[in-house]
Amino acid sequence: MNALKLVRLTAWGAITVITAALLYVLLSPRDAEQGTGVAAVGGPFRLATHDGRVISNEDLKGRPFALFFGFTHCPDICPTSMLEITNDMNALGAAGRDFRVYFVTVDPARDTAELLKDYLGSFDPRILGLIPKDEAELANIARAYRAIYRKVETPSGYTMDHTASIYLMDGKGQFFGTLDSLETPETRQAKLKRLLARG
Amino acid sequence: MSIRLPAALGAVLAAVLLLATPLSAHDYKIGDLKIDHPWTRATPGGAKVAGGFMTITNTGSQPDRLIGGSAVAAGIFEVHEMKMEGNVMRMRALDKGLEIKPGQTVELKPGGFHVMFMDLKTPLKEGESIKGTLIFEKAGTIEVEYKVEARGSSGGHGGHNH
């Protein structure tokens, strides 16, 4: 008798737990665009620009933008990515007039405003450098974007490991997707057009 | 008349042969090593580094290593490996150099092994050639010229980009 009651109680208990879990999974809020339930990408920041201003995420509201973590002592992926997005932005024509790309340096010790100005002058003028003033500011924006950066010693100095995707953010400051160097220009430009259409 | 025809044919043949030869054969040989088309890319303003790329073939029976080199435009020269791990770009200096096994062809290319020109004195401009050297553990030092290709080039003689 008691044993049967125990089994019954246990069964009901299990059903309750499973139902609760199912309800939680089905009803918990998630990002409709991503649909993956991953933590949000993007967040508050306030950083100096290479042309002597300070901007925050609040200033960017209302306009989609892209954001890239890089550094000028980067032989390959940074100049290539900036060249590609320069070409992509040219392909967008007038629709991309107000679009901005932010190049956040992960090497503020070497990437001064002056150097970034010179460097970014080789690319589309809509690409702006953001310079964290210290490790805390860099760590803050990297954390917000789930980006990785790490100093790596080499025989004569150092280089940086870093997340190399270009983040696409919509006008509400929400994560829209990424651009990747391995994608074709057509794919990247189609994504940018969708982003601009969404606003 | 009958003599001119073979002459004309010969001229055509010579022209065809000329066209079939690469316009800028750009390779080097030292010992058992063949180095094909050392190249680099035009640099953005203010850039202090550039990657150098090439293909190295070891036709001998002993392994060798690319352990260093130079480029006149660069203060420092290192041998590096770049790797994408997920969406993270990782870079390492190859402390023991880059091994080229007997019979092996190793490609130094964007996104992988490369030589690193650091402390650049001047920007690299498309169309230039940069004099320099490559130093191998066994084969020794060879003088080469690094051709400066367009920004974003993926290499190839004169750029058969995809």
Tell me what you see in this structure:
- The complex is a heterodimer of chains A (199) and B (162).
- Chain A is an alpha+beta fold.
- Chain A has 2 domains: 1-30; 46-198, Glutaredoxin (3-Layer(aba) Sandwich).
- Chain A has 5 helices and 9 strands, in the order αβββαβαβαββββα.
- Chain A has helices at residues 2-27, 77-92, 113-120, 135-144, 185-198; strands spanning 46-49, 54-56, 65-70, 100-105, 127-131, 149-154, 157-163, 166-169, 175-179.
- Chain A has a 7-stranded mixed beta sheet with strand order 2-1-5-4-3-8-9, with helices on both faces. In chain A, strands 6-7 form a two-stranded antiparallel ribbon.
- The radius of gyration of chain A is 22 Å and the shape is elongated.
- Chain B has a single domain, classed as PCu(A)C copper chaperone (Immunoglobulin-like), CATH 2.60.40.
- Chain B has one helix at 4-20; strands spanning 27-30, 33-41, 50-58, 64-71, 74-85, 88-93, 98-100, 105-108, 113-120, 129-136, 140-149.
Can you summarize this structure?
The complex is a heterodimer of chains A (199) and B (162). Chain A contains 5 helices and 9 strands, in the order αβββαβαβαββββα.
CATH evolutionary superfamily of the largest domain in chain A: Glutaredoxin
> Number of folding domains of chain B?
1
Q: Label the overall shape of chain A.
A: elongated
Label the CATH architecture of the largest domain in chain A: 3-Layer(aba) Sandwich
Number of domains of chain A: 2
Low-confidence blocks of residues of chain B: 18-23, 158-162
Radius of gyration of chain B: 19 Å
Shape designation of chain B: globular
Q: Give start-end ranges of low-pLDDT stretches of chain A.
A: 28-35
